[in-house]
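Submission sheet (multi-component)
Chains listed below:
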Amino acid sequence: MTSTIKDVAAHAGFSIATVSRAINAPHTVNPVTLAKVREAIDALKFRPSPLGRQLRGERTRLIGVVLPTLANPVFAECLQGIDELASAQGFRLMLMTTQYDAQRERHAIETLRAQRVEGLILTVADADTHPLLDELDADGPLYVLMHNDTKRRPSVSVDNHRAAFDGVRMLIAHGHRRILMLAGTLAASDRARQRHAGYAQAMEQAGLTPAPALEVDFNAEALAPSVLAHLSTGPTRPTALFCSNDLLAMVVMRGLRRAHLRVPQDMSILGFDGLAMGELLAPPLASIGTPNGEIGRAAWQRLMARIGGDYAGASLGLALPHTLREGGTIAAIGGAPFSEAADQRLMPGPMRA
Amino acid sequence: MTSTIKDVAAHAGFSIATVSRAINAPHTVNPVTLAKVREAIDALKFRPSPLGRQLRGERTRLIGVVLPTLANPVFAECLQGIDELASAQGFRLMLMTTQYDAQRERHAIETLRAQRVEGLILTVADADTHPLLDELDADGPLYVLMHNDTKRRPSVSVDNHRAAFDGVRMLIAHGHRRILMLAGTLAASDRARQRHAGYAQAMEQAGLTPAPALEVDFNAEALAPSVLAHLSTGPTRPTALFCSNDLLAMVVMRGLRRAHLRVPQDMSILGFDGLAMGELLAPPLASIGTPNGEIGRAAWQRLMARIGGDYAGASLGLALPHTLREGGTIAAIGGAPFSEAADQRLMPGPMRA
DNA sequence: GTGAAAGCGCTAACAG
DNA sequence: CTGTTAGCGCTTTCAC
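Outcome: structure written.
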């Protein structure tokens, strides 16, 4: 079916070694020979099998990518960024997703390692306390984390703490005092923790009291009564919600709408991720943006640097700048924080906690 | 570093052939031997290298996936569906994106073929007139198209013509008569053509005159004056827009908003793709939905069927059922189609064409 | 039931 | 400059 280096050698009347050299080190072979070999290559439509090369040796030109999911555009965008550089540089990408499951993370890494990938780009649930990463540090392959914001390991991310801090400070600057943080059910991730810490710091710095993050079920159609209750308990009722990611923010916006609460008049919303789609909402979603494509590309470059032997700079965490998109979902708060009407819309009959 | 079958053989005191059999055909080796070999495997944490296997033989357990982009959630969701089954069945995925570029499509397929993938799942710009696909038919590897709706080739999609037909008929049922179709700049794809044909058929069947699809720049902040002009030319002014995909619909909605047109009061919008995110818009986007995860999974199964030697059923096009999401972006039209106020909002001063 | 040996496609010494 | 040779890790006859 497909021809091998042997066929080319026979066709050209040289040894396979010469053919190999003609391909990998053209300058070391006689121009006339080279021409003949190339002719044979064309005639037979020969493409060297990566398999043979990979088996033989050091360079597989294979990079593994391990992501939680592609349902979140954040990761899809990162992957897109990686793929751009990878294909431009002649590398192949092997992709596995984990659904945030530690067991699948382990399986993915083992599979990829068995495939002899030269490097790994991955996003894990929690980078600091991850035995797998210690194993990788110990016996390869080289890796770079993406969106895992840790000082201890090679990674590319934003400064989640600082980003959340900036975002919440912006809410405070708009007059908000009672700000609640909402997180998805996968709140155990390092990112979520850091974002909450940033929120807490901003609150405290303004002399306000941070609250624990409130968990929200991602998949529910409406907001759970317990959550709505939190949004409506008299004097401590929040005027703004900081959502740990944009998808969550959108779900919450829908939930509020169903509960007849207006955004931003009755409740301001700040998301995290800066999904392009958020801008298309009405009102456009305010959000802390992460440069996902850039993160993917930077992760790639760092991985290449490490593979190239750069043990210094490329081995630590890199934080890319985040952005602050002040969309229409944030209202300024004056003296009277809440209207009676809103109060009533908030608690439709029996739901009153 | 990592141990090989040789190490295991030495450690267990048998030949590598026996180790190989212990792994691939346990029943053919003496139970006692088997136990010893397994012990050695565990002791050395041996994982057989796919590379050796791949080189030796037919089965690489590698599947190539070629997609236009991951920026569109449609494809990310398909990939997610594929990955689920692939990893469950012990296959590895090699991913390449093409940005709808024919040259990159060719390069991707060649790279993947060289890697000896056992099969290919791909989405191309235009399936019917694609020389590459003929080459694949001729000398492998086996493939299945995704979202390319063609009878002539193995594929999984929805019936784009029918789906568009249904959607536009629904618009007509809501009283719309002047309906325009909008398409992205990549309008040359087979999908876009089929969707326009479905639109045209629905129009004609209702005694209405279909118009050519109007091209809209995806990336522009506001709608181009030429487009706005089309939406405002006196008596033939449309009351509803059928957008060839959801991303486009969202961009158009934003553009209309900036032009001070209300959706759906002044203009109804129907999208195509059924992106989950569309439901979170305000108002929720009406859309023709494609079951992307299911399409990915079905494509996988069809590919496996073909690889398994099913030359009959699995070789033709499969159309999965589409859905019709009647979101809030569609208004019913009564007697008076357009308000004067809307007319004025539509043409802000100098823009009047 | 087990081992020896060939070979998958390729690269990399080492000779000539 | 070119050919010979020895593997990379594994599977698979073919003997024993």
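Remark: The first strand of chain A starts at residue 62 and ends at 67.
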